[in-house]
Specification:
It contains 6 helices and 5 strands. By secondary structure, the protein is of the alpha+beta class. Strand 1 and strand 2 form a beta hairpin. It binds iron/sulfur cluster. Iron/sulfur cluster binds next to loops. This is Putative metal-binding protein DUF2284. It holds the Pfam family DUF2284. It comes from Ancylomarina subtilis.
């Protein structure tokens, strides 16, 4: 499903967990994570204290949600990045707000957990809110760029000097049962449609 809303296009792709594993490249993706300055600083991110394959296999389906965000041309590069991260947090909060509407499901956010001002892991402490902590597809070793190419017929863009025209926010809903696609798109448009410039 593709739906264009003021400053973004929403893509949804329903897949089985077996299909998701076609994009599981743990050594490559978790290798990138190990070079991140935040590596080991968030409980939502690698290195994990659980088995990723076992975790994903608790579910049978995954709905991958791609938000293609048009960047605000009135902002300079650094303002754009700040705005992108603010919007990402907003989309994550909105997705979490509808998780309970889908029984036996768990959302995967874009980026790292945002629940605390600074993550307890950075101070060597256990997670403050394990019930609110959510992972991302990347943090589980999933190659997002290939998903965007295959499922959304598009490509990821990054900042290379100039800001690109758009950036992606990629989230997901893992579920034990199939999620009605009409209901999912209706709920996403309802909660995401209020986010905009
Ligand atoms: S809930 Fe807080 S302590 Fe737990 S992963 Fe998120 S930011 Fe870190």
């Amino acid at each position: 499903m593709n739906k264009t809303i003021p400053n973004f296009t929403l893509h949804i792709s329903e897949n089985s967990i077996e299909e998701l594993f076609q994009y599981y490249f743990p050594h490559e993706i978790l290798g990138y994570c190990s070079k991140c300055p935040n590596f080991g600083a968030f409980w939502s991110c690698p290195p994990h204290d659980f088995d990723i394959v076992e975790y994903l296999n608790q579910y049978k389906f995954v709905n991958i949600i791609g938000i293609k965000l048009s960047l605000n041309k009135n902002l300079d590069s650094s303002e754009s990045i700040v705005d992108y991260h603010a919007q990402k947090k907003c989309f994550n909060q909105r997705l979490l707000s509808i998780e309970a509407d889908f029984p036996y499901s768990e959302i995967l956010i874009s980026g790292h957990c945002w629940q605390c001002r600074s993550c307890a892991r950075d101070r060597g402490n256990p997670c403050n809110f394990p019930d609110k902590k959510r992972h991302s597809l990347e943090s589980l070793g999933i190659k997002i760029s290939e998903i965007i190419k295959d499922k959304f017929n598009d490509s990821l863009q990054w900042k290379k000097g100039e800001m690109p025209e758009y950036l992606y926010i990629v989230q997901a809903i893992l579920s034990d049962k199939r999620i009605n696609q009409v209901e999912l798109s209706r709920k996403l448009i309802e909660v995401f449609g209020r986010i905009g410039y």
